[in-house]
UniProtKB/TrEMBL annotation:
It holds the Pfam family PhoU. This is PhoU domain-containing protein. Residues 15-102, 125-195 form the PhoU domain. Signal peptide: none annotated. The lineage of its organism: Archaea, Thermoproteota, Methanosuratincolia, Candidatus Methanomethylicales, Candidatus Methanomethylicaceae. It comes from Methanosuratincola subterraneus. One of its GO terms (biological process) is intracellular phosphate ion homeostasis.
Amino acid sequence: MMEEPDYLKEINNGISEMYNSIVEIYEMVLSVLKEPTAGKTKEICDKTKLVMEQEEAIIDRCVEALIRHQPFAGDLRAVTSAMRISYDLARISRYLSNIVQVIDDVQSGVACAPDVKGLLESGWEMVQESVKSYLSRDPVRAASVIDEDAKIDSGYRKVLSRYRDYAGGGACVLLNGLIARIVERMADHACYISAETVYMVTGSRIGVRAPKCPPDLSSQ
């Protein structure tokens, strides 16, 4: 197996640094859900801005690699995949930041936040596995992440079902519904990262970015 070019090593180092920054954000968000504390939005938002700067740096490196080194075949796929993955990681950081924003905005509903903590932890496991599969170039591990997405979708629907007729107050309904939706979207981006890994290694696309349309019931 040929050694990875230096420019790809630099790009992957950037992805790793970006991921480490998101780990810090996740740990802060989880602490707020475990012991609800308002007022964390500004601190987490500042960390999210750093992730956005890291994304821009990765894109710059990728563009430079395309211009200077003119990669082809697997190396070209690696560069283009890194560009898309950096975007997905940036979106995940924004979603995490949005969770704390929701807690601050709803305020009276923070006591209900633990109801979606488990869903967030499951979604985060998908993010972890997607990044590890990318960095290790493991398409099998990546594909297993995509298989987990159905569980997140099911968990999201269970939250909506539970709070549809909830009599305990609108704040809990709003908080849990919004956070569950955010986690569902975060898990989707973990699938996108995994799909890019499969493409990077094998050259085959998995169409996970297409919307999940409900079945057509009009003909039944």
